[in-house]
Amino acid sequence: MQNMFLEIIDSAISYQYNEPMRFFEAIGTWLLGFVETFLDFCAYNLLVIRTIFSSRPKGHRSSLQVLFKQVLFTGYDALPVVAFIALAIGAISIIQSLTYLPRIGAGGFLGEVLVTGIIRELGPLITAFFVVGRSGTAVTTEIGNMVVHHEIEALESMGVDPIRYLVLPRIFGFSAALVSLNIYFDVFAILGGFLVSKFIIVTSLGTFMARIMEVLLLSDVVLSLVKGIIFGICTALICTFRGFSVRGTAIEVPQQTTKAVLNAISAMFLADGLIALIYYL
Amino acid sequence: MDLINEIENTIETRENIVEIRNIYHSFGANTLLKKASLNIPRGRHVMITGLSGSGKTTLIKIIAGLIEPDQGEVHIEGVNISKVSRSKLFEMRKHMSFMFQSGALLNNLSVFDNIALPLNYHMNLPEKEIEERVITALDQFGMADIRESMPGHLSMAQRKLVGVARALIVEPSILFIDEPIGVMDAIIREQMVTSLNTMRDNPNVTLVTVTHNIDYIKQHSDYIAILHEGRIFAFGTRDEILKSRDPVLQRIMAIIVDETEMLAESVLGLMTGKEDAEL
C-alpha cells in the first residue's frame, strides 16, 4: 500500500507542472491497475478454495513432502531467531512499563501489559512479520523463478496441479508454523519479562506467573492462535499469488517479492484491525 | 500384397488423436498463429517444423494445453480441452507427457525426486516400487550415478535426458517433444534417439515433435507438418513432404536446411571454443 501511495505522489510530481490532466490520467491508470490486481487476487482465492474441495489425486506423498519442508523451514528453523526477538520484546516491554506505569499510578498492571500487549497483539503480528520477511519472500522468489524457468509449465504438463502441489501445502504449512511460533514467542516473551522483573523488582517466578495467569484468559490464547491461522493463510495466499504474477522475465521476481512483502504486511494490519473490532465490539 | 495394403489402409484411416482447428495466437502486437489447423493421427510420429520464430514451440504448447489460444479449438481424444474443467484437464494430462527444450526440471528437487514426482503425485504406489521404477529409468539412460544430484549441477544435455526419463516414466499415450536434439554430444544424442524410437515403435504412443533438425526429421518422422506464416502450410507423410515439387515448400525446406547447418556450425564453434578454454 505504501509503495502505491509513493507511485501516486511520484506521478503527481512528474505531471503537475506539465499537464494537469495527465495527473488524473496517472491516478486513473493506477486505480485500474489496482482494481485489476485485486480482482485477479479474488479469482486466485476462489481457485484455491475450489482446489481444496476438488477430488484429490491418488498419491499425495509429493504434497506432503512440500508441507513438511515448509513447516520445517518456516517454523522449526525460525525458532532461535524468534526466541531471541521474543526475549528482547518481553524484556523491553517490562523495562518500559516499569519506568512509566508507576508514574501514572498503574504500576500493578505489568501482567496486563504482557498479556494484552504481547500475547494478544504483538506476538501474532511480530511472528507474522518475521515469517513474511523470511519465508514469504522465499516462497514468492521460488515460485517466480519456477515460472521463469518453465517449471510451472512442467508441473502442469505432468498433470500436477500447481495450486495443489505448491499453494495448499504452503497455506497449511504457514498456518501451522505461525500458530506454533506464536506459542513459542509468548513463552519466550514472558520469560524475557520475568528475567527483567526478577532483576529490577526482585520478583519470584511463582509470583510473576501467578500474576500473568490471573489476567490471562482462555480467549486471549484462542485469539492469539486464531490470528496465527489467519495471518498464515493471508501470507501464503499473497506470497504465492505474487510468485505466480511473474510473467516470464527474471527481473520481475524481485519486483513481485517486494510487492508481496508490502501487500502481506498491509493485509496483516487490516486483518488485525478487523479482528480487534470483532473482538472488542 | 492385399494384406499389406489392408494394414496400410487401416493405419491411414485411424482416428486422429489430436485435432486443432483454426488456432489464432498473438504475443502483444505479434500474431504468431493465424488459423492454424492440424490433425495428428494416433500412434504416429508427427514432426512440426518451420523457420526460426515461426511459432513452433507456441503451437506445441497450445496443443498440449499449456497455453490457451486466443481463438480456436484443440481436441484431444475428441475432448475440447478449452471446455473441460481444470481438474479434468489435469486428469487427462496423466496420460500425456511434455519434454521441454531446456528439460524444465524442478530445481529444488534431486534428479531422483524429479523423475519420481509424477508417480508420487498420481499413483498410490508403495515407495519401494516407485524407487525401483525410477532406478530402472535412470539405468536406461546411464544416469544412476547422478540420482542424488541437483539439476543446477547438471549439463544441459543431462538435464534433457532427465527430462526424457521423467516424461517416459508415466508411460504416456501422447508425448510432446520440443527440440529433442539440441546441444549434446553424440553419445547422449544416440541415447535420446534410441529412447524416442522405442516409443515410436509402440503403436499405442503418439509422438508430436517440434524440431528444426532436418536430419532428424528425415530419419525419424512418419508425418511432417510445415508451419509457415502462422498456419500449417503443408502436412503429409514424410515422403510426400520431402519429395514435394511445390516451389514454396522446397524454398522453406531449403531455408530450414540452411538454418540447421548454421546452428550446427555455431554449436561446433561453441564446443571448440569451450575445449580451447579448457586447454
| pLDDT < 50 runs, ≥5 residues of chain A | none
Order of SSEs of chain A: HHHHHHHHHH
Largest sheet of chain A: none
Domains of chain B (count) = 1
- Could you state the CATH homologous superfamily of chain B? P-loop containing nucleotide triphosphate hydrolases
CATH topology of chain B: Rossmann fold
Count of spatially separate domains of chain A: 2
Radius of gyration of chain B: 19 Å
Structural class of chain A: mainly alpha
User: Helical region count of chain B?
Assistant: 10
Distance between the termini of chain A: 27 Å
Q: Average pLDDT value of chain B? A: 84
Provide structural commentary.
The complex is a heterodimer of chains A (281) and B (279). By secondary structure, chain A is mainly alpha-helical. Chain A folds into 2 domains: 1-54; 64-280, no CATH class. Helix content of chain A is 84%, strand content 0%. Chain A has helices at residues 2-15, 20-53, 61-74, 79-100, 110-148, 151-157, 162-200, 205-215, 218-244, 252-280. Chain B has one domain: Rossmann fold, CATH 3.40.50.300. Chain B is built from 10 helices and 10 strands. In chain B, the strands form 2 sheets. In chain B, strands 6-7-8-3-9-10 form a 6-stranded mixed sheet, with helices on both faces. The termini of chain B are far apart. The interface between A and B is medium-sized, with 28 and 34 residues.
Can you summarize this structure?
The complex is a heterodimer of chains A (281) and B (279). Chain A is mainly α and 281 residues long.
